[in-house]
Amino acid sequence: MPNTKTEKQKMLAGEFYTAVDDELQADQAAARHWMERYNRSIGLTPQQHAELLHEGLGAVGKHCVVRPPFHLDYGYNITLGDGVFMNFNCVILDVVQVEIGDGTQIGPGVQILTADHPREPALRAQGLEFGRPIKIGKNVWIGAGALIMPGVTIGDDALIGAGSVVTRDVAPGVTVVGNPARPR
After folding, report:
1. Residue 17 in contact with residue 23, Cβ under 8 Å?
2. Which CATH superfamily is domain 7-183 in?
3. Residue 181: pLDDT band by 50, 70, 90 thresholds?
4. With 70 as the cut, is the pLDDT of residue 86 above it?
5. Which residues on adjacent β-strands are paired with residue 111?
6. SS in 3 state form for 58-109?
7. Radius of gyration of the chain (CA)
């Protein structure tokens, strides 16, 4: 039986998909338009920033601060809990779900990357990609320049050292540092 899923449905399910699909290209264009507006919003009030965040992201809790510039793929796969703070120049590649828990603080230049690519050269040559969701717990602190790689879960109260590359899950309350990030 042929696969009748759209490329967007495949993307959201974490299956192989082709990003050059017309529907996904339209979604990315809408996200770029939103980012353009958001990244020019430095002079807006906190309420106006909140309204823009609600417009561009899947779900936004109370009292969230995301300092521009901020970059994303789609926006609709991002969920921010109450009181999330993201400093300047953060990137979220949200081809699948990214959940960030209440009270989490994210330093400048952090990249949260759900997008992944096949390891097999023949599949990569076809332009296929897939995503693996990222879940960041409550009261997590992620230091400047850290990279959170596809499929990672970070437990509540964890601390990610600046510049760390997180390739594996981090247990609640654990501090990790380095490349690759390891418990300290």
Report:
1. no
2. Hexapeptide repeat proteins (2.160.10.10)
3. very high
4. yes
5. 91, 147
6. CEECCCCEECCCEEECCCCCEEECCCCEECCCEEEECCCCEEECCCCEECCC
7. 17
* Catalytic site includes residue 117: yes
Domain ranges of the chain: 7-183
Residue 135: what pLDDT?
98
Helix axes of 46-56 and 22-39: crossing angle, nearest 10 degrees: 170
What pLDDT, on a 0 to 100 scale, did the predictor assign at position 6?
Answer: 96
Q: Long-range contacts for 146-151 (Cβ within 8 Å, ≥24 apart)?
A: 146/107, 146/110, 146/111, 146/181, 147/110, 147/111, 147/113, 148/110, 148/111, 148/112, 148/113, 149/113, 150/113, 150/114, 150/115, 150/116, 151/114, 151/116
Residue 1: band (very low, low, confident or very high) from pLDDT cuts 50, 70, 90: low
CA distance 65 to 38: 12
Across all residues in the chain, what is the average pLDDT?
Answer: 96
Measure CA 38 to chain center: 16
